[in-house]
Amino acid sequence: MASLRGLSRPARSLPLSQLSRQTYTAASIRCASSQADAGALNDLEDSTLTAPQLGPDEKKEFRPWKRAADRKHALPSGRYQYHPPKFNRGPLHPVQSPPSSDPIARDFVPGPFNLPRLKQTYHSTIASDLMTLAYTHVPPGTPKKEAPERLRSWDGSSPYHKNRGLRGPRGNPVLPLIERDITFTNVPAITEITIASYVPEAIKDPDHLLVARSVLLALTGTTPEITKTKANVVQWGIKTGERAGVKTTVYGNAAYEFLDRCVHLVFPRIKDWQGIRATTGDSSGNLSFGFTPDEVKLFPEVEVNYWMYPAKMLPGCRVFIKTSATSDRQARLLLQSFGVPFYGPVRN
């Protein structure tokens, strides 16, 4: 490799057939050999800075795109390079994709590079406490409770009712999740947090949208996406398809860090704040709450550069916490263990 690296760039651009066969053979043997002598270790001291520099004429003639176009044969493929499959064809297929933690995997994401304090506390203390608090002793031989009917059956008054699927509940076509008991296999945890900001003033003044996007970028470290209105509201002068908001979603460690800042830095500084209403939730373990513009400026990322944001343009935001819990009761239990207060009547 040292002999090839010491050649000039025009010489390296020549095909291998025009180079000396002796040089090519020696270079290939050196590359393939795993037992190098002591003298070969001196080649490690070579640097690309010692290679001869290109002159003005050589720079003009150095055109990599033309060299690639004139190449008659394709370059040799990496013989020892493994390419994971593009599609997973089932657990029984002879070719399996590597795990996402493998650097050669297609879905590999480097990291994590930090361990949030709140996440470490969850794994060391909170997870075991949740199993203890949610433990329900069932003596052996206790008959199982019959689950309520979630789907309605047909009464059979018509011959068309035969072999038809069950009907959904009246009023609300969305079926909530069935609450499962907390065990060591399904301890609730935070999966993602979405922060959204609705800025109707941005319809007339786009600068409000820019400020809202900058605030969410500072809070989460991710670039927010712009949202558009989905309905017409004549009283507010809103039309469908107008850009009037931003939102972003954080996952994993970033979600725990955001909740950690809310619990320990923002919530204690809100004056006369009772907490989050206990009626919040979508009956599937996802809770939400909001911050006013005066509360958003309490975040340290905004407070440290408060002069960057116009005071009258600072937006509020809504926070949606998605958990792996199967009911709002379990989600509240999880957030209460993190230090989030709730008030008001409780809705299971």
Automatic annotation (TrEMBL):
GO cellular component, one term: ribonucleoprotein complex
Keywords, alphabetical: Ribonucleoprotein, Ribosomal protein
A GO biological-process term: translation
Domain of life: Eukaryota
Chain spans, region Disordered: 40-101, 140-172
Pfam families assigned to the protein according to its UniProt record, in alphabetical order: Ribosomal_L5 (PF00281), Ribosomal_L5_C (PF00673)
Keyword Thylakoid in record: no
Basic and acidic residues: compositionally biased ranges: 56-73, 143-153
InterPro entries the UniProt entry points to: Ribosomal_uL5, Ribosomal_uL5_C, Ribosomal_uL5_dom_sf, Ribosomal_uL5_N
GO molecular function list: structural constituent of ribosome
Start and end residues of each Large ribosomal subunit protein uL5 C-terminal domain: 244-342
Keyword Ribonucleoprotein: yes
Boundaries of every Large ribosomal subunit protein uL5 N-terminal domain copy: 186-239
Sequence similarity: Belongs to the universal ribosomal protein uL5 family.
Protein name, entry field: Ribosomal protein L5
